[in-house]
Write a structure and sequence with these properties.
Elements: H1 5-8, H2 21-33, E1 39-44, H3 50-62, H4 76-83, E2 89-93, H5 100-109, E3 120-125, H6 132-143, E4 149-155, H7 163-166, E5 170-174, H8 179-193, H9 199-209, H10 213-224, H11 232-239, H12 244-256, H13 259-271, H14 276-295, H15 307-317, H16 322-341, H17 346-358, H18 366-381, H19 388-395, H20 411-437, H21 440-445, E6 454-455, H22 459-466, H23 471-477, E7 481-484, E8 490-494, H24 497-503, H25 508-520, E9 529-533, H26 536-539, H27 542-555
Parallel strand pairs: 1-4, 1-5, 2-3, 3-4, 8-9
Antiparallel strand pairs: 6-7, 7-8
């Protein structure tokens, strides 16, 4: 009779248990020295070895000749327990035996000594399913059982157990098994069973198992049913996921707003009879990895990826802001919930959600608005802000000709020319102001048209700190703007020489330098602060910048 691989390769000793050394070492010590507890509580996620360790412990406490704390597996007690013939080891499923009458039966039985073994062992699986009255009936027996009785409780949901039960047990928390440990075990089983598996395929199975050994071995057996070499493609096809490469193409299509690629990926998934829910869960997992890369400096510590996958993920993460990623994750989560409620419209839900992810303007939720604001801020802080003249110049590239071959007259071009002339005049005036203020050399060496500056976000806090006790200085500072360059210098820009002259009086510059240092949390010297007179303040207020960005986006003009 065929036996499932996860049952066939279930560990028979504590040394065979993978990834739970922090638990098996203690259990081995207790078994070796005969210091058993009267009640054990094994808690953890599925497939991590709770029931396996419970059965090994049941054999160890009754083994006639234990070896290094583990059962020998050869004595009469071990053989009878393995075969299920031992009447003194009772395994009960609390999911189907959760009534108070079942616990009363146990309470009545514990008064009798074991018939054949040294100790009577009760293994209660999924103990959190017991009713409240059943827990109450178990309390006294669990706290002071006879010396020949051992209780082993196992659960996947510790929070559902009453504190009175937990406090009466010796608790062990089973951790999720790491991917390298799962891979090593899978390759060992595959070698013993004559299964040909690739390294990347073993890694893919281990990732899908999410720390569960039973799930990993079951999936290995499922993939081996094809009688082919197990490859990552075969694993993806068997599970029904789209594969890492397909997911990356879909995310890049979302970043590039490539609707053709988006609909093509969904169409291929549906045509290949893959489950869209599984596909969607993998997409959410990928977004989690992107969010980790985008927010954490040492992201490799929280990701289980190869170097090639990490490099690919880094390039994709640069295309999204944190606000956009959070907005996309919210949409993906809502879509998965909708898919689970209505199986017939999974494709429609998936396509509608992906289209919404490409265009934030289609949604008026707080998350979508936050993503749109973040996109505008990134454009503003990049150092380049389009002026109306540049928008008109770019738009004029697409002008059409009249049938007679002459260009159509454009009022926008006339306005653009006037604005360019006005801007040139303003620039010349600003340069003259710089010369009068005595900052000519600094301005020439740091030409604002040839450097990339970012807005100093903490400027309002700097103004508040520098103007304490002198409201007049604060009034002048509010009419100024501050920027930072890549080399760490700070540019303080005034709209005219009069404002700059007022800042130069007294110890205002020293206060301003101290305030900037405090807010940037690094020492800023006098040489690191450059004062300028520039038209930047007059031309580009915050609202003007945002309005211009929105107007440019509406006209289809690229700001990059």
């Amino acid at each position: 009779m065929h036996q499932a691989l996860y049952r066939k390769w279930r560990p028979s000793t504590f040394d065979d248990v993978c990834g739970q050394e922090h638990i098996t070492s203690i259990l081995k010590y207790e078994c070796e020295h005969g210091k058993f507890s009267h009640a054990y509580l094994f808690c953890g996620s599925r497939g991590t070895g709770k029931t396996t360790c419970a059965k090994i412990l049941a054999k160890a406490v009754n083994c006639e000749s234990p070896q290094n704390g583990s059962p020998c597996g050869k004595c009469a007690s071990c053989i009878s327990i393995d075969s299920g013939a031992a009447t003194d080891v009772l395994e009960m499923d609390a999911a189907s035996n959760n009534g108070v009458e079942n616990i009363r039966d146990i309470r009545d039985e514990v008064v009798y000594a074991p018939s054949n073994l040294k100790k009577r062992v009760y293994i209660v699986d999924e103990v959190h399913m017991l009713s409240a009255s059943a827990f109450n009936a178990l309390l006294k027996t669990l706290e002071e059982p006879p010396e020949y009785v051992v209780f082993i409780l196992a659960t996947t949901e510790l929070h559902k157990l009453p504190a009175t039960i937990v406090s009466r047990c010796q608790r062990f928390d089973f951790r999720r098994i790491s991917t390298p440990t799962l891979m090593q075990r899978l390759k060992f089983i595959a070698e013993q069973e004559g299964i040909d598996i690739e390294e990347d395929a073993a890694r893919a199975i281990a990732k899908i198992a999410q720390g569960g050994m039973r799930d990993a071995i079951s999936l290995l057996e499922l993939c081996a049913g094809s009688r082919k070499t197990i490859t990552p493609e075969l694993v993806s096809e068997t599970v029904g996921s789209g594969g890492r490469e397909n997911m990356m193409r879909l995310v890049e299509a979302i970043a590039d707003k490539d609707f053709d690629m988006i609909f093509e990926e969904i169409d291929q998934t549906v045509r290949s009879s893959k489950d869209l829910s599984v596909f969607w869960q993998d997409l959410i997992s990928l977004y989690r990895d992107i969010l980790v890369v985008r927010t954490v400096k040492d992201s490799a510590k929280y990701l289980d990826l190869t170097d090639a996958e990490k490099q690919s993920l880094d390039s994709v993460a640069r295309k999204f802001s944190k606000e956009a990623l959070l907005y996309h994750c919210k949409l993906l989560e809502d879509a998965l919930y909708s898919m689970q409620k209505a199986n017939a419209v999974k494709r429609i839900v998936a396509e509608m959600t992906l289209v919404r992810m490409c265009d934030n303007s289609l949604d008026t939720s707080n998350e979508a608005l936050s993503a749109r604001i973040a996109e505008i801020e990134d454009r503003l802080y990049s150092g380049f802000v389009p002026t109306p003249s540049s928008v008109s110049e770019n738009a004029s590239l697409d002008k059409k000709e009249y049938p007679n071959g002459k260009d159509a007259p454009s009022q926008n071009n006339t306005n653009s020319s006037d604005k360019n002339n006005a801007k040139t005049s303003a620039t010349q005036t600003a340069k003259n102001d710089k010369s009068e203020s005595g900052e000519r050399s600094a301005s020439q060496s740091h030409d604002s048209d040839k450097r990339v500056l970012k807005v100093l976000r903490c400027w309002p806090e700097v103004i508040e700190r520098a103007s304490r006790g002198d409201a007049g200085v604060g009034a002048f500072l509010k009419n100024m703007k501050a920027y930072t360059s890549d080399d760490g210098k700070v540019f303080v820009c005034a709209e005219n020489s009069f404002v700059l002259g007022m800042i130069e009086r007294g110890d205002t510059k020293d206060k301003l330098r101290a305030a900037i240092s405090a807010n940037l949390r690094r020492e800023i010297s006098d040489r690191d602060i450059i004062y300028e007179v520039t038209e930047r303040v007059r031309e580009n207020s915050v609202m003007d910048e945002i309005d211009e960005l929105m107007r440019s986006a509406h006209d289809g003009v690229s700001l990059d």
